[in-house]
Amino acid sequence: MSAGSGQIIGGLKLLLLQALVAVIAILLWHIGSTVPIGGVYLLPKFFFSTPADVASRVFSLFADGTAKIVTCQEPFDFTRLLSISAPCFGKTIWQHLLITLTEGILAFLIGAIAGIALGFWLARNALLSAVFDPYIKMANALPRVVLAPIFMLWLGLGIWSKVALGVTLVFFIVFFNVYQGVREVSPVILANARMLGMSERQLLAHVYWPSALSWVFSSLHTSVGFAVIGAVVGEYLGSAAGLGHLIQQAEGNLDTTGVFAGMVILAVFVLAIDWLVTLAERRLLVWRPPSAAGQG
Amino acid sequence: MLPISGAQRGDTRPLPETSAQRETAAARAGNGNAAAVRFRGVEIGFPLPDGGTYAAVAATDLAVGAHEFVAIVGPTGCGKSTLLNVAAGLLAPSAGETFVLGERLAGLDRHAGYLFQQDAVMPWKTARDNVAIALEVAGIPRPEALERAQAWLKRVGLAPFGDRYPHQLSGGQRKRVGLAQVLIRDPQILLMDEPFGPLDAQTRQIMGNLLLELWAQSRKAVLFVTHDLEEAIALADRVVIMSAGPSSRIIGDHAIDLPRPRDASEVRLLARFHELHKAIWGQLRAEVLKAYGMEAA
């Protein structure tokens, strides 16, 4: 991961070693689930499925999904997708992914905007922040999963109850980072900006805002990750579509292969998002010294 | 760290002979016009946790002429930076008044540029943007501000580094950005708080020369705080000595009659430089030792 280890062992060698870990793990899983050792399977198929089954299920999910998109007569309509009433809805893996992605993106955007707005407001207002402090701590200490049924009651089984769950997770991460970012602006930079003749509004735009945003960006991996977790957990607890729904359905049918296939797809999905976040981060935090930028 | 009451603080009076020196200095500086910066009976105290007051600076009178380069030298913790913050309007004195260009100072000093000891440029802006923002906040359109910023970067020797972020520059280069950022606004008064303190000896002399060169072009009033007596003599027209804290005050005010234009490193080789250094060091030494908690010899 870090530049240091990359220098100690070459990039290609590192990649090979990383691949080796996966190969050994899959091999052990394969042997345990298909080769009887002393007459017993160490990893019985019923509980652990097999790598080959999972791989073929993942493949068929995508192959089947593509076929269904082609045969589906209903024209694809994004607004109908949100209302979960289109006949084609939830039939293909692509639509499940799109639903989870949509929920994650909405949860991230709403949570981030709310967190930035409230973080700024409270950080610049000592009285308000003191008044709200215990309530914010209380809300943050609450395990958000317990809110999922409430959100379902309020917002229905569609995407908005999942978005709401994601928002409650993203909001606090962004909020605390913005709050800290505004509070911990270097007093020297602030005094210098004042001496350069900046008004309060200009201080906000040129000093507080960039400082707060840098804290938000450095927590981007965490907050984006939580947006997806909110979506998947919400789907898992009750929905008609999405990756969480897929996994939950498979579990309900004692379909271990389906559960593992869902987890594999979910892992790749999250890795892809994380990679996009890394790209965004490199562009946005270009002014940061490398050591500080790597801390996020 | 002596907590003293307001009444006790009033007792501290400047020495008679330095007071006389100051009168002549003020007259010389004033030259009939209003001084750029004038402290009148400025006292600075900070509240202590136990309810008392820590008197950082006792009643101080000082005037900096419109085109004068004044250096304040004193041992660490003598309140010289605190005095500078009062001149900038960043800190309100507990007693006394500050006049800037003849007007009583209330709030921030709008005529002053301040170069801080620590890095004060915005890390999220490139060198050019950091300099240009000083004009942009005054309502100058961005294209013009960027153009003038590039010209200033050239003057401080950073022409090729406009697109670099502060962390990609060396300490000396960051100071140059700070200098350009302050000077591009063309302030009447330049306040400098040990600006070259964190730099190595060679870079300090190079920066000193750069400062002298830029100062010679416009002859702003400069109030330069440093703990380095040699630097002060090499740069300034007047060197003001402050006593060790608490209740520090001005105990010496020396005119530096070295010829200008000067070279900040070569001027140190002149015989007159050594005479001045010897005379002022004699006074400063006792204060430095006091600050270290020792008995003066």
Q: Which structural class fits the helix and strand makeup of chain B?
A: alpha/beta
Query: How many structural domains in the coordinates of chain B?
Result: 2
The CATH architecture classification of the largest domain in chain A is: Orthogonal Bundle
Query: Which percent range fits the helix content of chain A?
Result: over 70%
Oligomer: heterodimer
Largest β sheet strand count, sense and barrel closure of chain A:
none
Largest interface: A-B, 22 and 29 residues
Shape of chain A: globular
Count of discrete alpha- or pi-helical segments spanning 4 or more residues of chain B: 9
CATH class of the largest domain in chain B: Alpha Beta
Low-confidence segments of chain A? 1-6, 67-74, 81-90, 292-296
Instruction: State the major sheet of chain B.
Output: 6 strands, mixed
Secondary structure category of chain A: mainly alpha
Order of helices and strands of chain B: HHEEEHEEEHHHEHEHEEH
Strand content of chain A: under 5%
Please tell me the overall pLDDT of chain A: 83
Output the strand order for the largest sheet of chain B: 6-7-8-3-9-10
Distance between the termini of chain A: 13 Å
Task: Characterise the protein shown here.
By secondary structure, chain A is mainly α. Chain A is built from 15 helices and no strands. Chain B is globular and about 50 Å long. Chain B is 38% helix and 21% strand. Chain B is built from nine helices and ten strands. Chain B has helices spanning 6-11, 16-30, 80-88, 127-136, 142-155, 171-183, 201-218, 229-235, 271-291, and strands spanning 37-47, 53-64, 69-73, 95-100, 103-104, 112-115, 189-193, 221-226, 238-242, 250-255. The A-B interface holds A 186, 188-189, 191-199, 202, 206-207, 210-211, 214, 286-289 and B 88, 90, 108-110, 112-114, 116, 118-126, 133-134, 137-138, 165-167, 178, 181-182, 185.
